[in-house]
Amino acid sequence: MKRLLSLGLAAGLALTALLTGCADAPEKIRIGEVTRSIFYAPQYVALEKGFFKEEGLDVELTTTWGGDKTMTALLSGGIDVALVGSETSIYVAQQGAADPVITFAQLTQTDGTFLVSRQKVEHFSFDQLKGSVFLGQRKGGMPQMVGEYVLKKHGIDPHNDLQLIQNIEFKNVASAFASGTGEYVQLFEPQASQFEADGIGYVVASFGQESGTVPYTAYMAKQSYLEKQKAAIQKFTNAIYKGQQWVASHSPKETAQVIAPYFQEVSPEILESSVKRYLEQGSYATDPILDESEWNLLQEIMDQAGELKQRVDYAKLVNTTFAKTAKEGK
To answer: Which GO terms describe its cellular component (predicted)?
Structure first.
């Protein structure tokens, strides 16, 4: 009898330990980022500084390489949260999705590309683009739409005043320019800084500064997921906000050192200069709230690019509850 009691007690303690372990186990969230970019520094800071773990989350990050692939992964259940251009949720809505994709946190608030000239230009003006060969980005994506928006703002018709090349895959644009294609190119960091260092090209303008504040890259999830995982999404947003605040309050060098494991092929100097550029032009959002004015500008940019079938109400595709709660520290 004593042996049976001992066995029973042992089994009970083991079960209790198992249940306690399950209760304490961090909740897993799978993120799909549209590309690996210094532009997303606050996300990598949140990972490296343990902000997600502090919130009780186990975050799995995958680079999904492209807006279409990222959204396919989200809609099919391959990932839980997508970090992608805000325009993608509108594209899904335009297709009449039964389970709409909702943006709940903003990461970047300007365009992240720079205009790079093959020749060094002392006094650049956008008029100099007329008649040139311009290596742009993929049609329908935020970089290309913002690029065209900025050109039009300066009185340039991107489809008639210059030779626009936009049929090269995003990941191959920099190498295409380096190999001799185009007189001007639209590039993200660190390629822009690296090209300057190597004498391949020279930054003459910032599309981020020219276009103004826009919800460029944001976190989104299916509405059904947000409804079922409210607590987890709040913890996730809290961690992102911590990452944003950390980047805003630290030097470019400090941020570059923290995110270095994600950019092992980039030199410390180029990494630091890239972060500095984005900080100086306010590209990193300092909180995850996507404002309605930004949403309206996004749709204006899409409309001018011919990619907007009809305007979508801000309240329909944007949920700021999690972002506001994170900022308020509740």
So the answer is: periplasmic space
Instruction: Tell me the CATH number of domain 26-110+214-328, given options 3.30.70.270, 3.40.630.10, 3.40.190.10, 1.20.1730.10.
Output: 3.40.190.10
> What single-letter amino acid sits at 112?
G
Residue type, 243: G
Give me the amino acid identity at 248.
A
How many other CB atoms are there within 10 angstroms of residue 234's CB atom? 18
**Any idea of the CA torsion for 219, 62, 305, 288, to the nearest 10 degrees?**
20
- Using a 10 angstrom Cβ sphere, with 0-12 exposed, 13-18 middle and 19 or more buried, the burial of residue 77 is exposed
Could you tell me which residues come within 8 angstroms of residue 311 by beta carbon, excluding any fewer than 6 positions away? 299, 303
Closest CA to 325 of 251, 260, 239, 265: 239
Report the pLDDT value the prediction gives residue 170, as an integer from 0 to 100.
84
Tell me the CATH architecture of domain 113-211: 3-Layer(aba) Sandwich (3.40)
- Long-range pairs for 61-66: beta carbons < 8 A, 24 or more residues apart: 61/31, 61/33, 62/30, 62/31, 62/32, 62/33, 63/32, 63/33, 63/35, 63/36, 64/32, 64/33, 64/34, 65/34, 65/35, 65/170, 65/171, 66/34, 66/35, 66/170
Helices and strands (H, E) in the chain, number of each type: 16, 10
Q: What tokens does 122 get?
A: 């002392």
